[in-house]
Fold this sequence. Notes:
The longest helix has 26 residues, at about 125-150. This protein has helices spanning about 30-45, 50-55, 55-60, 65-70, 85-100, 110-120, 125-150, 160-180; strands spanning about 5, 15. The chain is rod-shaped. The protein has a two-stranded antiparallel sheet with strand order 1-2. The protein is built from eight helices and two strands, in the order ββαααααααα. Helices cover about 60% and strands about 5% of the residues. By secondary structure, the chain is mainly α. It folds into two domains: about 5-70, no CATH class; about 90-180, no CATH class.
Amino acid sequence: MSATYHCPQCDHPITADAHFCSGCGADVSKYQQAQQPQAQYQQPQAQYQQPQAQYQQPQAQYQQPQAQYQQQQPQAYGMQPTYAGTRDERNNAMFCHLSSLLGYIIPFSQFIVILVIWANHKDRSEYVREHATEALNYQLSYLIYAFISGLAIFFLIGFLMLLVLTIFDIVVSITASMKASNGERYRYPFIIRFVK
Length: 196
């Protein structure tokens, strides 16, 4: 079946092979030649739309790996890895360091708290055992430094040494307890690690 067009003058339908309009008698051969290439190019244009839709699907497929790589981004240099343990483990690790402040109220009570936590968790939680061991080494080192500062009182510098040591003890104990509560490891500066 031949394609039909409309006469540009009277809008009468005409066939593709007609050279004159049957309605008004106008010459439509030039008009048909102009319309025929336009109709030929419409079909390839529709054919190229299908591959375009096909390439949209791989684009959506690559969005999922992109989200996965964002989750696996490396941590910034110098940051400590966070321990994803239970809240009970973090609290016990925090109490090991906060017990240092308890020693100002009840002397040597910090050693009892640390040893009790260490004995209860040494085989159950490596994270608590590590913080308890670090806190115990710090308390032993602090005891030695406090003893030396006490002897230095006779040389008139012991009071200043005890003041500096007390401020240092409060600062590092609070810092260590915050690190332990956030699931991070902490190393006390200037201590002797007697217990491994």
